[in-house]
Design a protein that fits this description.
Blueprint: H1 2-17, H2 19-28, H3 45-58, H4 62-80, H5 103-116, E1 122-125, E2 130-136, H6 140-156, E3 161-171, E4 174-183
Antiparallel strand pairs: 1-2, 2-4, 3-4
Length: about 180
């Protein structure tokens, strides 16, 4: 998911301010020429500096920028999917009727998570008409970016939803980041 975050950050900045602005931001934070991901697909320390510098350049706070990048990425993905491709994943769980209007968001989210290749992410109905996205070890940047993805998913499904990040908790020695989606 780190790759998608960094690609969407670059795409969002260049769409808003052009390639020259992105190049200037990269120079300002000494971003390496060989990419922004460290071996093992973790973010390099300059990735955090890039987010902050980009937020400053665009006049946004970090949360708003990451959410906008998540929405930007999803809108690009939805535009790239063939119209004949059904936006459904595996069968909905037995408690899906409890999701009500969020069933469509749940089905789209399953498809998107497959596109992520995010086998480590878990999408769960909470039992109280909400969806929880668990992102083990993903980090705060990815969690904030995922909020933007799920806000855009809700809009794409035509569902008014409140999407929020849930504070990280420790689980078996690593942070478990969560995002919750509730119908309004």
């Amino acid at each position: 998911m780190h790759v998608f975050l960094m690609e969407s950050l670059e795409g969002f900045v260049t769409a808003a301010h052009g390639d020259a602005s992105w190049a200037a931001i990269c120079r300002r934070v000494d971003a390496p020429e060989d990419g922004l991901l460290a071996p093992g697909t973790g973010l390099r320390p300059c990735a955090y500096a890039l987010v902050h510098a980009s937020a400053h350049e665009l006049g946004m706070n970090r949360q708003a920028l990451l959410e906008a990048c998540g929405a930007f990425w999803l809108e690009r993905q939805l535009g790239a999917w063939p119209t004949s491709t059904p936006a459904v994943g595996p069968p909905l769980p037995e408690d899906a009727p409890a999701l009500g209007r969020l069933q469509t968001v749940y089905a789209l989210a399953q498809h998107v998570l497959r596109q992520f290749g995010a086998d480590h992410c878990t999408l769960l109905p909470t039992g109280h008409g909400a969806i929880e996205v668990r992102l083990p070890g993903a980090g705060a940047l990815v969690r904030k970016w995922t909020v933007g993805v799920f806000k855009a998913l809700s809009r794409a499904a035509g569902v008014a939803a409140a999407v929020r990040e849930v504070c990280a908790e420790e689980a078996r020695g690593f942070a478990l980041h969560r995002v919750e989606v509730c119908a309004c």
